[in-house]
Amino acid sequence: VQLQASGGGMVQAGGSLRLSCAASGRTFSSDAMGWFRQASGKGREGVSSISAEDSTIYADSVKGRFTISSDASKNTVYLQMNSLKPEDTAVYYCGLSLSNWYPRLEECEYDYWGQGTEVTVSS
């Protein structure tokens, strides 16, 4: 299984970005997918997750601003990030949690990770 994350970049506060995570080697028809982020000097934290049945969860810090979605036909998960804040600056990683029917924000639940895409939000 390989996960390819893309879509990061630099944006001003209040702006938007859409991250993509394309999976190959497995269709996530029974898996959960998630987005995590790691700011400089901090640990990795869960941002959002989506189950195979499109149940979603979000970290409190991004609720109302970020939206996770999936396109099964493309084996791709997206993270639409609106109203970005400087504190959203981090490297964002997508992950796959095998055979997990529920969305998860715990890092230990994930089996595969993408390479990360960097998001920088300037004030």
From the alpha carbons, calculate the radius of gyration and give it in angstroms: 13 Å
Overall morphology: globular
Main β-sheet, in a few words?
Answer: 7 strands, mixed
Mean pLDDT: 95
- Number of H/I helices: 0
Q: Please write the string of helix (H) and strand (E) elements.
A: EEEEEEEEEEE
Distance between the termini: 37 Å
Estimate what percentage of residues fall within beta strands.
Answer: over 45%
Poorly predicted segments: none
What is the quaternary state of this protein? single chain
**Which structural class should the secondary elements be placed in?**
mainly beta
The count of strands amounts to 11
Question: Helicity level, as a percent range?
Answer: under 10%
Short description:
With 123 residues, the chain is mainly β.
Describe the structure.
The protein has 123 residues and is mainly β. 0% of the residues lie in helices and 50% in strands. The chain is built from no helices and eleven strands. The protein has strands at residues 2-6, 9-12, 17-24, 32-38, 44-50, 56-58, 66-71, 76-81, 90-97, 112-113, 117-122. Strands 2, 4, 5, 6, 9, 10 and 11 form a seven-stranded mixed sheet that branches. It has a four-stranded antiparallel sheet with strand order 1-3-8-7, with no helix packed on it. A hairpin with a 4-residue loop joins strand 7 and strand 8. It is globular. It starts with a strand and ends with a strand.
